């Protein structure tokens, strides 16, 4: 089984629900969605990628057919099943699959094909049709498509289902509000040095998801510098926690702030202050100075003792050579 890189953590953790859902078919190992097509990777039995990694459908595109590209970069053919699931995002962005999640659109989508065999090194296009019910609530509705490779039959007692989860956001026509607010900024109050980790909390207060990507990245202002947070998305009605790091100077009273525009252009902001004081370096300097002082004092005492000994020796030599008796 392929060990997926860290960027697939969202999909890996999302497999917790599917682990329960698949029942006797076995547990699930979920990998990250990826892009592109390539020949089979030598020595790799299983390597499946899906692009795009997420799909955001705007109101004007709802009637258009949407597509995913599924690529088998492993050395063996795989049987793929495409399943639909409701989800809600966790604080760290992982998809928590659960029935009847808020703003579900799993009943709006038809996937074609939903089952297919994909030979090694081949790519398959999967189309998505969206049928919005009458009088839907305006704003974002969402679901996840799970590209599942069920475990085959084998002699072992453990069988592993493998899959990739890709979120789909569907924006229903109506008033669009992508506002969000910062509700907190956490950082250590005191540090011996860097790097410093700042974690902010962002809550979506609008009717659609909010992307903080590329030029629209969320930024931390600290000591006159601008530090970007990683790309992230906060879903409708969801809360996200996101972290970034800052390398402070040796000594620093680091005042940090993060803000985003709110409704009407009024920003929401959060602040934090970190005192950077290299006490370990100060202790090292003090100990070094104390050591040098003790060495110098010892040298002075030794020198004085040598002088006194020399003077005493000269004095003794003079006393022993007095006047001769007649």
TrEMBL record:
Keywords: Membrane, Signal, Transmembrane, Transmembrane helix. Residues 1-25 form the signal peptide. This is DUF916 domain-containing protein. The chain crosses the membrane at residues 275-296.
């Amino acid at each position: 089984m392929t060990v997926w890189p860290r960027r697939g953590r969202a999909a890996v953790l999302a497999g917790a629900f599917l682990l329960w859902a698949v029942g006797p078919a076995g547990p699930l190992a979920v990998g990250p969605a990826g892009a592109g097509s390539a020949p089979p990777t030598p020595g790799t039995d299983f390597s499946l990628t899906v692009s795009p990694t997420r799909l955001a459908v705007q109101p004007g595109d709802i009637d258009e057919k949407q597509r995913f590209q599924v690529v088998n970069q492993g050395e063996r053919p795989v049987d793929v099943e495409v399943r639909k699931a409701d989800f809600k995002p966790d604080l760290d962005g992982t998809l928590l699959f659960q029935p009847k999640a808020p703003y579900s659109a799993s009943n709006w989508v038809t996937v074609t094909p939903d089952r297919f065999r994909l030979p090694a090194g081949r790519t398959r296009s999967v189309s998505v049709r969206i049928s919005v019910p009458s009088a839907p609530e305006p704003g974002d509705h969402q679901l996840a498509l799970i590209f599942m490779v069920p475990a085959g039959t084998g002699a072992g007692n453990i069988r592993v289902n493998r899959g990739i989860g890709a979120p789909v956001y569907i924006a229903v026509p109506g008033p669009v509000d992508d506002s969000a607010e910062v509700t907190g900024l956490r950082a250590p109050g005191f540090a011996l040095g860097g790097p410093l980790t700042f974690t902010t909390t962002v809550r979506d207060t609008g009717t659609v998801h909010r992307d903080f990507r590329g030029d629209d990245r969320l930024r931390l202002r600290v000591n006159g510098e601008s530090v970007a947070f990683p790309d992230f998305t906060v879903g409708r009605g969801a809360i996200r926690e996101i972290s970034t790091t800052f390398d402070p100077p040796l000594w620093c009273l680091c005042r940090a702030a993060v803000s985003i525009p709110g409704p009407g252009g009024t920003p929401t902001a959060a602040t934090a202050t970190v005192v950077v004081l290299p006490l370990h370096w100060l202790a090292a300097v003090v100990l070094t100075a104390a050591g040098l002082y003790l060495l110098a004092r010892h040298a002075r005492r030794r020198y004085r003792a040598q002088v006194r000994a020399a003077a005493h020796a000269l004095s003794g030599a003079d006393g022993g050579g007095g006047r001769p008796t007649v």
